[in-house]
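User: quick one - fold this with uracil bound?
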Amino acid sequence: MDGFDGRCVTDCEQCPDLVASRSQIVNGVGPDDADLVFVGEAPGANEDEKGEPFVGRSGSVLDDALGDAGVDRSAVRITNCVRCRPPENRDPTTDELANCRGYLEAEIESVDPSLVVTLGKVPSEHLLDRSVAITNEAGDVVDCRLGDRSQRVLLSMHPAATLYDASQRDAFEATIASAVSLAGLGDGDSDDGDGQSRLGEF
Ligand code: URA
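Assistant: Sure. Structure tokens for the protein plus uracil:
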């Protein structure tokens, strides 16, 4: 794909509304070999300004939940279904999601994580290619087809849901803790995140 290095898009003008509304393309951040990859919907105003996914209030909620689970944000990869900010923060359209799909699939294939976590309804429905009742299905682990690979995916509510409804916070934190554990990361696990067990401790 032109304007794409396997993980990052350097140049793309496929979506006219997004080209008009973005100030930059927001690529995924985090290790190129992360065990855990979070997939959000699309950049918002803060992300568009900083050029990094989840750096606004939703990002703080995610960072806190990761921290509570014993993992620093820098240890995971964070990306979005769509890499350019939609106008007025509307949902990405079906065409926009489809235009960006190849980048997302290639990024996930290149990183090859043990677990992908979809943050919210839009990325969950996009990756599973079916409608998702996220309040009921958050916490479920499914296998999904991503390009040529079968990928283990954990469904999560969007961190912003906890800002609208504080009673969702415990459930969100439990899902993130489960993601950390399933990916073999975090303080409480016997794996230190590089895929090697800490055998030297014994
Ligand atoms: N919400 C998202 O879905 N993605 C971001 O990067 C920020 C907020």
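One thing worth noting: The chain is about 35% helix and 15% strand.
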